[in-house]
């Protein structure tokens, strides 16, 4: 039992390793990054509490900050504000929800069971392999085993191109590309990517990326060093953007790029409590969340700034209990909880952004408000983002195939 568990752990760990490698190198297929044109700070994304703000308190204790926010603002007011603002947004910006496909619609299923055979190498972790009971009474088998799925309804390809032709009545060809370029194979019957306009949308917001991590979350925030940054693929444009901001803010840079903590792999030296108790040499992704959680802010910059491309870089930071400073998809608000991140592109200059970050760092009540969505259960669009994540991909794909009528469609 123990043996099997640690073997599983190992397998999952190496899967994640490969996954992360792929994510790293995915940047080779990127469009050149163009520096964001930065409009001035605006409205609700930067909502400040209406109550009195103490701007000169370099607090460390997150729980105390929460208590102060509770007494000055509280969930009832937060919910009301974000209900109102979502209604207003809803009527004026009609595209707000079209960034996400709606899931869970029970209409139009034509098949009761769908089986998907996953072909070739893919970075989707193996623990998705299973027989699922999906909504609307559909069952879905998702497997890499040609024995378990001896007569599959669909074949899924990610890193390999599907066959040029599909014989009549043969399995549908599903092709997935979650890289920013969203390149179709040209021969698939069903295309999966991160955009709502694709046949099946898959976001990066799921727990799938998190298996086998150390989820220790620090309640004590570093009040001298404000920002966590880690990047080991030193893309010139990303580096430049990061350095423009980080030059203005006390930060720790743990990766290869602009490292200022005395070398790579220093996180465990600085935060020994982040060591995973799993056997084997620690890998940086095991303790990523835990290390981030010691900082008030995490800088998250996408490799490519393009619509709806919101990746685990942002969700890691959110999940660790830090406030992300984000440069990425222009429609990022369609994917995240209200008042949960600082959208760096909305500031007129890096100086203005840095000064906003510093003021938050010295203001426990205003800072605590960035955690209110979680404490008050206000998910906003994030609910839909999660529902369309990789975690739920087998059922959503099976439902799509079922609606299409399967191989005979
Ligand atoms: C944040 O700003 C963007 C861009 O101006 C806007 O479209 C969006 O509705 C705002 N988000 C919230 C939560 O108000
Ligand atoms: C403001 O912060 C200081 C320093 O932590 C604290 O002593 C004071 O009580 C705070 N004032 C208010 C109104 O919260
Ligand atoms: C907002 O959207 C919901 C469904 O998405 C709709 O039921 C509601 O009427 C909309 N509200 C406004 C003010 O448009
Ligand atoms: C950090 O917090 C401690 C205790 O709350 C305080 O004494 C110290 O001045 C703060 N440090 C900075 C750099 O603000």
TrEMBL record:
Record's keyword annotation contains Cytoplasm: no
Compartments it resides in: Golgi apparatus, Golgi stack membrane
Keyword annotations of the record: Glycosyltransferase, Golgi apparatus, Membrane, Transferase, Transmembrane, Transmembrane helix
Annotated GO CC locations: Golgi cisterna membrane
Top EC category: transferase
One Pfam assignment: Glyco_transf_10
EC number: 2.4.1.-
Main location: Golgi
Keyword hit for Protein biosynthesis: no
GO molecular function: alpha-(1->3)-fucosyltransferase activity
Membrane topology: Single-pass type II membrane protein
InterPro entries per the UniProt record, alphabetical: Alpha-1_3/4-FUT_pln, Glyco_tran_10_C, Glyco_trans_10, GT10-like_C_sf
Domain Fucosyltransferase C-terminal: 222-404
Record field: transmembrane: 7-29
Pathway assignment: Protein modification; protein glycosylation
Family note: Belongs to the glycosyltransferase 10 family.
Name of the protein: Fucosyltransferase
